[in-house]
Amino acid sequence: MFNYDNEIGTPHKPPKLMNVNDFLNWKARFEEYISYIDSSLWIPILEGYKHPTYEFLEETVPEPISKLDEEEKKVYDREKKAHGSITMALSRDLFHSFRGYDNSKDLWKAIQMWFEGNSDVKKSKRELLRKQYECFRYLENKSTDELISRFYHLQTELKSYDLKYPADELVEKFLDALLPKFDMYTTLMRENPKVL
């Protein structure tokens, strides 16, 4: 139960990024979490936060928190909650990689760049996913449940990289991937498309 709560989060703690290979699913869960706890936290994450400053001896220095007016304190608190939510969502190992980012916008952008990459990396990932889709089949010593899970995971990855396939093509791909012991059923389904 503890690992499940870590993975999906709770109303009081964000989902943890437990597996770097699951970044896109984590990102979607984290976005839902932020929208659930306080959608205004997206403001500093997406638009950034600039702490009020003042001039002192020809230097620009940050305004002490105690000197902020009520609205400035709300904006400051929003930034701290956003930044804290992101850092709490990182595993201990990942947290060390992103410690230098002191505002939520830069931290969020750095995490996305780290895991999603630039446009060249995304293009390579799209090509890899396209090839994985084309070569999708059952694997020896794997159950039907594992095949289904792999196929749904692949579909999610394809969608997240904007690779769309028609529903009938997806059904055909899955039927082709089933173990030979299901041939009789797949033949019946293909002969009677209404079943699909």
From TrEMBL:
<protein>
    <submittedName>
        <fullName>Uncharacterized protein</fullName>
    </submittedName>
</protein>
